[in-house]
Amino acid sequence: MSVYTTEIASDKIPSDNVIHQRLLSAYHQAKPFINGDLLELGCGEGRGVELLAPLANSYVGIDKIKSVIETLEKKYSDYKFMSGVFPPFPFEDNSFDTIVTFQVIEHVKDDEGFVKEIHRVLKPGGKALITTPNIKMTLSRNPWHEREYTGDELTSMCKKYFENVEMNGIAGDDKVLEYHERNRESVNKIMRFDILNLQHRLPASILRIPYDLLNRINRNKLNDTDDELVKSITIDDFSLKKQDDGNLDLFCILTK
């Protein structure tokens, strides 16, 4: 995956602000769970390193984009970063007290193998935190995703490897939901031209370029509204809630 897609929201692009704040909120919600040796699977451009790594005894971040890892190694010399594709993970059994993996599992082809590996490298009593989009709130097919889940679907899969599975979610307040509805209306205007349902019939590789183009145009349009809704949304407009179909993301807590 190229770093320069709408799939990786940037804090430097104004129209990405809502998505960036939504993703950042998961790291803030994760802070009370961080303990001991911490592993982040899919650390991306390091959105949460400064928030979580200081709370741990050690931090390891792994991501498949080598150029991003090289940048993080220079910026955060006190922490360890690795590039690689997973699963499997290049770690011994029972290596980490805490694992975080945010907005990653939907990109992994072998999702069950991914959860199984998380269980393997997590220490007894350790916790793993997983976030992923709630398919109930998805507006269109995302060709960068292998799949998306309901809370029950992800819970069921995780329970194959973990006895203790707690499903929560990242929810938005009225401002966030107003943005979501504006986004829905805009997406529906675009999708009405897809009379052949090509978004679900064409291979993902063909859809990615038009998806990114239309997604960027749509985000820019929403950002240009007179009331500056996009600019006003912060992490304080998101919160951790119990499982609900109206949550934007699933927030799953696994205990070994």
Report on the architecture of this protein.
It is globular, with a radius of gyration of 18 Å. It has one domain: Vaccinia Virus protein VP39 (Rossmann fold), CATH 3.40.50. The mean pLDDT is about 95. The chain has an eight-stranded mixed β-sheet with strand order 3-2-1-4-5-8-6-7. It has about 260 residues and is of the alpha/beta class. The chain is built from nine helices and eight strands. The longest helix is centred in the C-terminal third of the chain and has 20 residues, at about 205-225. The protein has helices at about 15-30, 50, 65-75, 110-120, 150-160, 175-190, 200, 205-225, 230, and strands at about 35-40, 60-65, 80-85, 95-100, 120-135, 165-170, 240, 250-255. Helix 6 crosses helix 8.
Query: Which structural class fits the helix and strand makeup?
Result: alpha/beta
As a percent range, the share of helical residues equals 25-40%
Rg, Cα atoms, Å: 18 Å
Integer count of domains = 1
Order of helices and strands: HEHEHEEHEHEHHHHEE
Q: Class, according to the CATH hierarchy?
A: Alpha Beta
* Total DSSP E strands: 8
Q: Give the CATH H-level superfamily.
A: Vaccinia Virus protein VP39
Strand order of the largest sheet: 3-2-1-4-5-8-6-7
Q: Shape from CA axes?
A: globular
- The average pLDDT score comes to 93
Q: Oligomeric status of the shown chains?
A: single chain
